Amino acid sequence: MKVGPTNSLTDVGGLRVGNAHDATLQSGTTVVLGDTPFTASVAVMGGAPGTRETDLLAPDKSVVAVDALVLSGGSAFGLDACSGVVDGLRADGRGFRVGAAQIPLVPGAILFDLLNGGAKDWTENPYRALGLKAYRNASEQFEIGSVGAGTGALTAMLKGGLGTASLQLPDGSTVAALVAANPVGAVTTPGDRHFYAAPFEMGGEFGGIGPDPASGLGLSRESRKMNAMSARANTTIAIVATNAVLTKAECHRVATAAHDGIARACVPAHTPNDGDLVFALTTGARPAADVLLTGHAAALCLSRAIARAVYEATPAENDIMPCWRTANASI
Question: Which of 47, 240, 274, 324 lies 20 to 30 Å from 109, alpha-carbon distance?
Fold first, then answer.
């Protein structure tokens, strides 16, 4: 396996990613669109998820394909970002046709960033507009770090963010991940320098610092975030994608396997106060692949994407947590 050309979700051809965020709000939204509707499923392993229309992604449900997937900040308010994406799709004539009606199908998931120092005193929910803006911004090129759904994200010790990574498999298919990392757990080992995901890094994509040589890692529960805000202000939400044909049930299996990537990059993971969730989608542009290898690659990509999210985070006014780059300025 090797890294894709751009090391991003859009290495899976036919996908575009759009970001929108508000610096004053310190929050934002990310949307993934396909040139055509795509098969998708979802696996939830956190104890506190926030979702919209994820039931229709179960393998036994009748919906065959969806039009977009949304990741958003804003907790329950952020679910309205899906409505903005629906508005954009409908205006562009996309959606599931039922007689004269055209209904865009847009599942989504949210993370909690309401206590991160941004202004949350709005009178009108801003996330619908952010969702529409993200839809209009969708492109094969997109930024990561403190953007989109990762704008206000925080890990236990450092700012989180939006991250992505990809792999090309020996059979010619591509697997990639996109994540908004806002976990209960730490993404770096004590000292804020080494990433838990370091053993899976490729090409110095998050600093090339290497694994922490210390032993006994994971015993500390130090958390700047928990000291600064509610213990419930969390969640890592992700999308993994491939261009290899998968059934809806196989997408569900890949989403489940990809959760290993969260557990390898965030310590602890899948806690009662996280809403950890992974969507898996396929564009179906290539022949069917080895589902085992696809799931394994998805987990590798997701670990790397989480570390990249933290590595690429940038400081902003009113931050309550440091960035990795600030904490390691001497490196």
Answer: 324
Pick the CATH number of 9-327 from 3.20.20.370, 3.60.70.12, 3.40.50.1110, 3.100.10.20: 3.60.70.12
102 and 223 in contact (C-beta within 8 Å)?
A: no
pTM of the model: 0.96
Is pLDDT above 80 for 329?
no
Q: What is the pLDDT of residue 259?
A: 98
Percentage of the chain lying above the pLDDT 70 cut: 98
* Structure tokens, 308: 């990249």
As to burial, measured by CB atoms within 10 angstroms (0-12 exposed, 13-18 middle, 19+ buried), residue 224 is middle
Taking the mean position of all CA atoms in its chain, how far away is CA 40?
A: 15
What does the alpha-carbon distance between residue 305 and residue 288 come to, in Å, rounded to a whole number?
Answer: 25
CA dist 65 and 281 (Å) reads 9
- Give residue limits of the domains in the chain: 9-327
Check: CB of residue 188 under 8 Å from CB of residue 196. Answer: yes
Residue 327 has pLDDT above 90, yes or no: no
The residue type found at 231 is: A
pLDDT at 330 over 70: no
Which tokens belong to 168? 């090309």
Spatial separation of the C-alpha atoms in residues 218 and 196, rounded to whole Å? 10
Axis-axis angle for helices 81-91, 127-137 (nearest 10): 50
As a whole number of angstroms, the distance between CA 80 and CA 29 comes to: 10
Give the burial string for 195-211 (b: 16+ CB within 10 Å, else e).
Answer: bbbbebbbeebbbebee
- Rounded to the nearest integer, the mean pLDDT of the chain is 94
CB 2 within 8 A of CB 167: yes
Beta bridge partners of 69: 32
Non-local (6+) Cβ contacts of 169 within 8 A are: 1, 175, 244, 289, 293, 294, 297
